[in-house]
Amino acid sequence: MSENTVSPSVPWAICMASFNYEKREGRGEDADPLTLVNDESVWIGVFDGMGGAGAQMIETPEGLRSAAHVASRHAVGLTADWIRSSAEMAAKEAAQDLHDFLKAGLDSKQRELAPVESRIRSRLIRKLPTTAAILQICDHQAGTYELRAFWAGDSRVFALTPSHGLLQLTVDHLKGGPDPYENLSSDAPMSNCLEADEEFFIEEALLRLEEPFIAIAATDGCFGYFNTPMEFEELLVESVYEAQDFNAWRDILIEKICKATGDDASMAFVVVGLSSIDEFKAAMQEGRLRLYDNFMSKLNTIESTVRLTRVQLEELKRAEEEQLSSMKTLWQRYKETYQPELPRLRSK
């Protein structure tokens, strides 16, 4: 587990924090998230090495590591280098330039590596595969903030807002195009990701917000193990109300996400346009009630019904087993008089 908190050197952001939880310590395929301030812009990002496609083992100074592990860490370093060298780039050029920078860097890294001989032979194996979900935030004008998301794969960028709740700014690159709810059960394969020696694309989206918000970049280990996207929003919102400050909020998120997830999980967030967590709690109160009244109360009622029905089914199963056992026991007693031994003759 790695954690990081910084105070951004811009007046409109009070806290920027991140964490990276590894299911297997030292073998995680998520990189430590990107948290960076450059030329009045705040940047956050997450990178999730693709374990199945990047299963090939590679010699590194730390020992044998998977291509997925190496890919995510190299991609976050490349992205930081690109940000520092390209912060003033026109919006229309940014996605293409980021693509070209990452492509050249991953291809170059692949040529330097010494892959270990492996019996793995599959068309699904890729060279240095990783997702990327990156967000730039800047002060567009007084009270209005510009958010530019760049991504490849199924890691996501969100904005948690008082009036609109949780907004997903990215669209997962998955075969068949399932929506976020459908993908929780379909587990569709990736249709696009960063990788070496093969083509990929960077998608970009722009949003302007005129209110305080918390911007979040997260890998699928953070949100992919809940039954619905609404439940992920509830986790974020209710954790705010449990916390005394934003550092405590991060710690609560770590505890709850690590308990729920079956994967590595990494997240970075930045708090924009707020002076304290108490200010955000006050601003979120109406949206919190709306989320509960419109969605969570109904889901909770259904879940309670399902739990009760499961208990009743277990009780029914035990009653049926007891019934069968009792019938057999009673039959043996009844049989003593029911079928007396009589003289019998059989015809030829």
Secondary structure elements and pairings:
Blueprint: E1 2-6, E2 13-21, E3 34-38, E4 41-46, E5 57-60, E6 63-66, H1 67-86, H2 91-112, E7 127-130, E8 132-141, E9 144-152, E10 156-161, E11 165-168, H3 180-186, E12 194-196, E13 203-209, E14 213-218, H4 220-223, H5 229-242, H6 246-260, E15 265-272, H7 277-338
Antiparallel strand pairs: 1-2, 2-15, 3-4, 4-8, 5-6, 7-12, 8-9, 9-13, 10-11, 10-14, 14-15
Helix pairs in contact: 1-2, 5-6, 5-7
How would you portray this structure in words?
This protein has helices at residues 67-86, 91-112, 180-186, 220-223, 229-242, 246-260, 277-338, and strands at 2-6, 13-21, 34-38, 41-46, 57-60, 63-66, 127-130, 132-141, 144-152, 156-161, 165-168, 194-196, 203-209, 213-218, 265-272. It has 348 residues and is of the alpha+beta class. The strands form 4 sheets. Strands 1-2-15-14-10-11 form a 6-stranded antiparallel β-sheet. Strands 3-4-8-9-13 form a 5-stranded antiparallel β-sheet, with helices on one face. It has a two-stranded antiparallel sheet with strand order 5-6. Strand 8 and strand 9 (144-152) form a beta hairpin. Helix 1 (67-86) packs across helix 2 and helix 5 (229-242) packs across helix 7 (277-338). The relative contact order is 0.14.
